[in-house]
Design a protein that fits this description.
With 643 residues, the chain is α/β, with parallel strands linked by helices. Helix content is 61%, strand content 8%. It has a seven-stranded mixed sheet, with helices on both faces. A two-stranded antiparallel ribbon has the order 8-9. Strand 8 and strand 9 form a beta hairpin. Helix 1 packs antiparallel against helix 2 and helix 6 crosses helix 7. The N and C termini lie far apart (82 Å).
């Protein structure tokens, strides 16, 4: 009220009147913006209160996407090449305990194709899948997940396959972690994902409990994970869950507690008849069968059978057939006299022979030149050794996440390299464009520009040191209450900046300053909040970070250019603007990845790391796991690390 009255009283003094009117406009704009903020916040809060029907609809959408992704995973597991597409299928067995009347234990044996019916009709919804290395645990798990997704009806839980080693049970609640993984994979809000978990619309399928700890160390993480899972079961008595783990005294059996109220099935090793039938399918001619006859005879022996133990898993059997198809004599699979007498390690020799055959066959199938094949095998070994470094330093060790790959090297060296590169490249605009104070500007002007350059150097180098994760830049995040408030405030601040700049330097500068400051604040608002990794592709989060860095650099550069033109001229403005653009890009997590790829190349890794990992996934060595890669077989990883 005071400003309009004061303006009316000074209406005869045009300068004073214009001043009062200007302040009245700014105040009115601010009040209006605050009102818009309150309306938007109220609208967002109402929209965030999702109904059960809305959650059910979202669960249906998630189920469709999960079916698409897991079907592709299953196709890849079963169809890496023509031989794998007909890989041997095993059986699984459930042991029913002795009844109260003292009846003997009963074993229920099923084939892989019966897993969905078995889970629905013969379990309580909680299942632990156990098996020795290479027996097909992942294949059986994905078969179950895809089968349940295909049969899912509205309102039923969505099977969600996720890798357990990505969870840190000591520092994160199970439900929180599960909701985070759902949000990452399906690009939905964390609150929505958490609501789905709470409403029991998610059926967690947890793969890799045995991979949370080394078999040579105490199972601290595995124990904590089982405790977290059991706490979840206790809080949600009707919840369904599937856990996958290696069997044996070095894995599931060594845990002090097991999954609560869960049925357990164990994947059986292949029987001699299945092994022989598989070989006959792939080696049907008479000459081949004659070559395999000594192996068949050894398989049918009733005494302790080392040959059966060497060939009784699907991947080993596949490798054995591949050995013959490459022109080798299958009698190499038989123990020598020294090994039978105990002076040689038959199991270790066969394991190494089959794994070497598997690796060479896979590489030659996808690398036609011998030199390229040898190089690829060497690079796979280097990558496996770097995973051992990650595990030793407490940064995982099971997954290759590109944005965190710098931890696989001397991390301080990578950071120093990154900061040094940032500082050196930021000198280019000064060297190319140059700056020297004119006689009219003087030393104070020079010091002013120098302080601007030092400020850019400082913030770029500091960001290069601390930017260890990609920026979670998503325009959809502007719908949350916090981002709505920040966005509305950016309108107010940018308008004030534009009015002040327009008053001082003219309308054109005012509009430019206002628009660039608004864009800058919107970028900051869109990247504000918890960091979220994009799991649509292993490179997705880094590419998103790169795009954000470019957008931020261009916006800050435009702001600096418009700001310095009237103060220091076009040359200085252009130099500082280029420094802003380059500093933003150089200090990004994407540049950190490029620096890491170069450091890895020095250590013997491929320079184009992402491309090589994509090739390794197509070749069957790696599989996608959320935002990263995993070696397809734990035994493959262990073999490569030993070489």
């Amino acid at each position: 009220m005071l400003l309009p009255i004061s303006a009316w009283l000074t209406r005869d003094d045009s300068a004073s009147f214009d001043k009062h009117v200007g302040w009245a406009n700014i105040l009115a704009l601010t009040i209006g913006a605050v009102g818009v903020i309150l309306i938007l916040v109220d609208k967002v809060e109402r929209s965030s209160d999702l109904s059960s029907s809305r959650i059910d609809d979202l669960a249906g959408t998630v189920a469709k996407e999960a079916l698409r992704q897991d079907s592709l995973l299953l196709a890849h597991l079963l169809s890496t090449d023509s031989l794998d597409s007909r890989a041997a299928r095993g059986n699984f067995v459930k042991v029913r305990p002795r009844t109260s009347k003292g009846r003997p234990t009963k074993r229920v044996t099923k084939e892989f194709g019966e897993i969905v019916d078995f889970y629905i009709t013969e379990t309580k919804g909680r299942l632990v899948i156990l098996g020795a290395p290479g027996t097909g645990k992942t294949v059986l798990t994905v078969l179950l997940t895809v089968g349940l997704l295909k049969r899912r009806q509205n309102g039923e839980p969505v099977p969600f396959l996720v890798s357990l080693p990505s969870w840190d049970p000591a520092n994160q609640d199970f439900v929180e972690w599960l909701a985070e993984q759902i949000a990452i994979r399906f690009r939905i809000g964390r609150k929505i994902a958490a609501r789905m978990v709470q409403d029991e619309l998610i059926l967690p399928v947890l793969d890799g409990l045995d991979e949370m700890d080394s078999s040579e160390t105490a199972p601290h993480r595995s124990e904590q994970a089982v405790k977290g899972i059991n706490d979840y079961i206790a809080c949600t008595p009707d919840a369904r869950i599937v856990v996958v783990c290696r069997s044996g005294p070095r894995y599931y059996e060594r845990l002090s507690r097991t999954v609560r109220n869960a049925d357990e099935i164990t994947i059986q090793n292949l029987e001699p008849k299945k092994i022989i039938g598989y070989v006959r399918t792939h080696c049907p001619d008479e000459r081949a069968l004659d070559a395999w006859e000594p192996v068949f005879n050894a398989l049918m022996e009733r005494k302790p059978n080392p040959v059966l133990s060497a060939l009784d898993t699907p991947w080993r059997l596949t490798a054995a057939v591949t050995l013959y198809l490459q022109g080798e004599d299958p009698r190499q699979l038989l123990p020598t006299d020294e090994e039978l007498s105990g002076s040689g390690d038959y199991a270790a020799r066969i394991k190494g022979l089959l794994m070497e055959t598997y690796v060479i066959a896979k590489v030659l199938l996808h690398r036609k030149r011998l030199n390229a094949a040898v190089t690829s095998i060497r690079q796979l070994r280097h990558i496996a050794s770097r995973l051992a470094v990650l595990e030793a330093t407490g940064h995982g060790g099971k997954e290759i996440v590109l944005s965190q790959w710098w931890n696989a090297f001397a991390s301080q060296s990578v950071v120093v390299f990154h900061v040094g590169l940032t500082f050196l490249v930021l000198q280019i605009p000064s060297l190319v464009i140059g700056y020297g104070p004119s006689a009219e500007q003087g030393i104070l002007s020079f010091l002013g520009v120098l302080s601007g350059k030092i400020t850019i150097w400082y913030f770029a180098c500091k960001r290069a040191i601390t930017r260890d994760k990609p920026v979670a830049f998503r325009l959809r995040s502007l719908r949350s209450p916090a981002q709505v408030v920040m966005s509305a405030l950016s309108v107010v601040v940018s308008t004030v900046c534009g009015l002040l700049a327009g008053t001082a330097y003219g309308a054109m500068y005012g509009v430019g300053i206002g628009m660039t400051s608004a864009a800058l604040m919107l970028l900051v608002a869109a990247s504000y909040g918890p960091q979220r990794v994009d799991a649509t592709h292993p490179l997705a989060s880094l590419l998103n970070d790169r795009n954000f860095a470019i957008a931020l650099g261009l916006t800050v550069g435009a702001f600096a250019f418009l700001y310095y033109i009237p103060l220091r001229g076009i040359t200085t403005a252009l130099m500082l603007a280029l420094m802003c653009v380059m500093g933003s890009i150089l200090a990004s997590a994407y540049t950190r990845y490029l620096v890491t790829a170069f450091v890895g190349w020095i250590y013997g890794l491929p320079l184009r790391l992402a491309r090589f990992l994509s090739w390794a996934q197509r070749a069957g060595f790696l599989r996608l796991s959320g935002a990263g890669y995993q070696f397809r077989h734990q035994e493959l990883l262990e073999y490569l690390q030993r070489r």
